[in-house]
Amino acid sequence: MKTEKDYMKMALSLAKKAASRGDVPIGALIVYDGTKPDSPMGRLCQEKGILPGTILGRGYNRRNQKNNALYHGEILAIEKACKKIGDWRLEDCTLYVNLEPCPMCAGAILQARIPRLVFSLRNPKAGFCGSLLNVLQMKELNHRVAIRENVLEGEARDLLSHFFSSMREKKKDN
After folding, report:
1. What CATH number was assigned to the domain covering residues 4-173?
2. Which member of 4, 74, 79, 100 is catalytic?
3. What pTM, to 2 d.p., does this model score?
């Protein structure tokens, strides 16, 4: 079975793909945990032969590539995972992403009923999973998400720092 670090390395690899295409390097993947085999999702996965540890959806930022504000890595991973299992509820999954999700993505996590989020690095300017606000654990809402942070934080920080310094250099040269 893969570890949190293994999955985060995959998310970082997706983030590098985004960077190579001129988008902010954010990569996300959704993994089926298999902890609730008797749940509706568990039964769907059993019917489809999906085993615990299976990656259901992958995504990376494509906003610049698609000229669309909705093309965040988390949103794309959620969309692919829902399509793969044939349901909008991802009630037995973990979302791995290298940067704390923004308000839109945090809302999508709640709407998809994802129970667990693992991320590398806080986002002090736009993070809605603990930095600016923590919507994933608001008692007023009907769903809450367990959060684990700082997984491969250094690698994520290096990737984002390199990307933004490279962008600043390009602007300076123009």
Report:
1. 3.40.140.10
2. 74
3. 0.95
